[in-house]
Design goal:
Layout (H helix, E strand, L loop, with lengths): L9 H4 L7 H8 L7 E5 L4 H4 L7 E6 L2 E6 L2 E15 L2 E5 L5 H9 L7 E11 L4 E6 L3 H11 L5 E10 L4 E9 L9 H12 L4 E5 L9
Antiparallel strand pairs: 1-2, 2-3, 4-5, 4-6, 4-8, 5-10, 6-7, 8-9
Length: 216
């Protein structure tokens, strides 16, 4: 591919855009959703196709997968219950007493049901200066969820660990305390993120994308 050259002189545009990348991101997002943080394993279609490294974390918004590496430092802010069903549409339910929550929870034990449930955490990712959700909806991640909850309001590092059975081997999230200092979010931004996270609609219906890993 030939090298691309600017066709407009820098003195015309000022060399740099007037507005920041943060403002650009805020005006191009498709919805008012928090990004999600996810461990992509060999079960992920992105990893199967070679588009994304196996057992790396990604922060995901609008189908853009931003590679964070094998480990990521986070601030664990708060949590909420969530049930998720992936079918022709993606249905999220946040009230445990809602009939749909119970239906999805009961169905989650069926093989290839597309149903998951568990705690979802609000986290801050200092490397990207963004808030994101981290859903512990599989059996493996639910086992790790108490360790994440124990670090509420504290710094943590998400890694991965290998789990082996007689038939299968896979990787799942693992958490440890983080001793590396990092910059915490602005208090007003933190309040806004918590307010949005704590007050979702009873149910949310989205179009299908690579929302989560296969439930294990």
């Amino acid at each position: 591919m030939p090298e691309e050259h600017a066709l407009i002189p820098a003195e015309v545009t000022g060399g740099l855009a007037k507005y920041s990348d943060d403002i650009f991101a805020s005006t191009t997002k498709s919805g008012d959703y928090l990004p999600r943080l996810q461990l992509l394993t060999s079960a992920s279609e992105k990893c199967k196709s070679g588009e994304f490294p196996i057992n790396h974390y990604a922060v995901i918004r609008d189908q853009i997968f931003d590679d964070l590496g094998e480990a990521v430092d986070i601030l664990v802010v708060t949590w909420r219950p969530k049930a998720l069903e992936i079918g022709d549409e993606v249905i999220s339910v946040f009230k445990p007493e809602h009939p749909e929550f119970k239906r999805i929870q009961d169905k989650s034990g069926e093989q290839d049901s597309g149903c998951m449930y568990g705690p979802e955490f609000l986290v801050y990712i200092p490397a990207k200066k963004v808030f994101a959700t981290f859903f512990c909806g599989s059996k493996s991640s639910r086992r790790e969820a108490p360790a994440i909850k124990a670090l509420l309001t504290k710094a943590a590092t998400l890694k991965s660990k290998k789990i082996e059975t007689k038939r299968y081997t896979w990787f799942a999230p693992a958490v440890v305390g983080c001793s590396t200092p990092f910059e915490t979010p602005n208090i007003e931004d933190l309040k806004k993120a918590v307010e949005k996270f704590n007050n979702p609609p009873e149910t949310v219906i989205e179009t299908v994308d690579e929302t989560t890993e296969r439930a294990r």
